[in-house]
C-alpha cells in the first residue's frame, strides 16, 4: 500500500506542477501559505455546485477535505454541496441544470443515455474504480457461495441498476438469474428488510458495510459478495458533468476534478484526519464508521490505471467494457459512442 501511495503522490505532484505553472508547485498534501490563500480568496471565486447521490458519509470525505483545506479556493472555485436520495435523482439534477457536477453511478449514467439520447452527460473522474456494488446477507441463511442465491430474494430500492448488473455477476458465477427474485424497499429501509428476514440479501454498496455491522443484533453475522471482485469488471461511481458545462467551462471543470482528486489522495493518506471535515459538516455521522467508509473508498478507488495516472483517471478500455455491459444487458443501443461519454480531466 505504501508503494501504491507513493506512485499516486508522485503522479499527482507532477501533474499539479505542470498545470499550475507560473512557479506555484504544491505537493499533494500541502496548501497555500496564508497570504497567498487570502490573495486567491480576494478574487471572485466561481460558484460550483456538486450533488451527491446519497447522504454525507466517509465515502465522500475527499470532497469535503478539498473544500476545508482550500484546494477548491486555490483553483478559483467556491463549491457548494447538495444531497439527494439516489442516483436517479442526482442525474435529474444535472439534466435539469440544477447542478454543475454530480457524484453518481456511471452505469446508471450510461443507462440514461440508452433511454434518453438527449441526456448528453460525461464521466469526468472515476472514484470507484472497482464496482463496489455488493450483496449482503445474514450468514445463518445458508448462503456460502454466489450460486446459493438461487431461489432467494434480494431487496433493492426502486430504479436501481443492481438487477441489470446482477446478470453480469450471475454469468460469472454460474447462477441462473431467472431463479433469483427481486423486491423493492425505500433506500433508507432496505437494509432493515434484509436484517429482519424479509429478504435473503440486500443490494447496496460496499461502503455501507460499517453501518450494516453497527445495526446487527447479538448473534447476527453478515457475509457479502462484491460484484467487482466476482467477475463484474466495470466502473462504479464518480464525477459527472454535462457536455454543455464542459464545453463552456473546460478550465473550471479541470480545476474541480483535479482539486477533488487531490482531496481524496490526501484523505487516503490519513483516514482519521481525512474524515474530519465531513464529520464536522454532518455531526450526525459516527466518526469511527466514517473512517471505515473512507478506508473502503480507498480500497475501491485505486486500480492499475490510477497507480499510473492518478486518482480519478478513467481507463478507456474499462469505460468501453462498462458501456458494452449496459448495451448487452439492456438490449438497447446507446446512440453516442463511448468516446463521447467520458473525458479525462486529471
Task: Describe the protein in words.
The structure is a single chain. The chain is of the alpha/beta class. It folds into two domains: 2-130 and 235-340, Periplasmic binding protein-like II (D-Maltodextrin-Binding Protein, domain 2, 3-Layer(aba) Sandwich); 136-229, 3-Layer(aba) Sandwich (D-Maltodextrin-Binding Protein, domain 2), CATH 3.40.190.10. Helix content is 45%, strand content 16%. The chain contains 15 helices and ten strands. The protein has helices spanning 2-20, 34-42, 61-68, 71-74, 87-95, 106-115, 162-172, 190-195, 209-214, 243-248, 250-269, 271-281, 287-301, 304-309, 316-330, and strands at 46-52, 77-83, 101-105, 121-126, 133-138, 153-156, 181-184, 201-205, 222-226, 237-242. A five-stranded mixed beta sheet has the order 2-1-3-10-4, sandwiched between helices. Strands 7-6-8-5-9 form a five-stranded mixed beta sheet. α3 packs across α11 (250-269), α6 packs across α15 and α12 crosses α13. It starts with a helix and ends in a 16-residue tail after the last helix. Mean pLDDT is 89; it is low at 1-31.
